UniProtKB/TrEMBL annotation:
InterPro entries according to UniProt: Acyl_CoA_acyltransferase (IPR016181), GNAT_dom (IPR000182)
MF (Gene Ontology): acyltransferase activity
SUPFAM superfamilies: Acyl-CoA N-acyltransferases (Nat)
Domain of life: Bacteria
Coiled coil: none
Database matches in Pfam families: Acetyltransf_1
Name of this chain's protein: GNAT family N-acetyltransferase
Alphabetical keyword list: Acyltransferase, Transferase
EC number(s) stated in the UniProt entry for this protein: 2.3.1.-
Organism field: Nocardiopsis codii
Broad class of enzyme this protein falls into: transferase
Amino acid sequence: MSIVSIEPATAERWDDLENLFGPTGAYGHCWCTFFRRRAKDHTASTSCDRSMRGVDNKEELRRLTLDGRVPGLLAYDDEGPCGWVSVAPRDDFIRLSRSRSLRPADPDEPGVWALVCFWLPPRRRRRGLGSRLLDGAVEYARTNGARVLEAYPVDTVGGRAPSAEVYTGTVEMFQRAGFTLSGHHLSERVVARLELKTE
């Protein structure tokens, strides 16, 4: 693989993010806003008017980015933007606090960041790019004051799962990166946590 850099998705990189996600907004017109919006506000991918699918989601991500928020990180290689990871303070992801399967045991725990999504174009998958994005997310969270980075990977033991089902990453990936894995206190989901040492 060529040299890869991991960069914050800042306002000046909006065009790169838009082009990477393409006309379908990454997964099913989500534009990586599923965890950032209440269920009633998230635009379904099944709208009868195809031109309107995901429009509100895209506008939400665009607004966040152009307002100076950093909703995630972009990977770049010599061909341009090639991958994405959504990482931010856990409080930014409103749907986590309302989820029956992912609700934090202690929603007021300070300094917790969450990693909720990876997106790689199909031709970029299975080349180690996801692990590079994970390393970049760990470093970005650490340098921005996170005490803990939390994620919600899928266990793929027993066979591969479709890419759309492992957008949160795999258990194996987080194990390799040194995360501690445990069962969620209310569901059968896996929670991966990494204590971050800040300078």
